[in-house]
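Entry 14. Structure prediction run on the chain below.
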Amino acid sequence: MRDPIGVQVAQVAECYEKHSDALVRFAATLVGSADAEDVVSEAVIAVLRSVTNEVDDMRAYLYRAVVSASAKHWRSHNRRRRREKRAVVFAPTPPDWSVDVRITAALDRLSAQQRAVIHLTYWEDLTPTMAAERLGISDGSVRRQLARARKRLRECLSENR
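Output returned:
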């Protein structure tokens, strides 16, 4: 007796091994090269989770799964952008504060969400928990955005030396 799940995994693995480069190139066209491998990985995992019967054309099935995963990627990306726009609008630095022009320029290169958490954490001296409550997001989101913002600020300020 054949194990249908084992056959399915083998069929997906064989097809992925044979067409992975083409799938990644296809995904790069849909979402860009930076996210292409992640989208393909998500698509393969989705196929492994969802398909219980033998598929006639696994390659076509994987391509359709990549299209679905890329649509999911863009939905997530767009939701994140909308969330950032709804975040606290970062007010420009008041003129009486003496802030280095390089710092102001580096802050301008952050996303709205990152500027919001930087502003609340450093200018308003809130804890990440208090900033999360103010923005209506989780503590983890605030901490993650702070880490990304600090990294980006370090990169921007080291470029301008």
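The chain has seven helices and no strands.
Filed with the rest of this week's runs.
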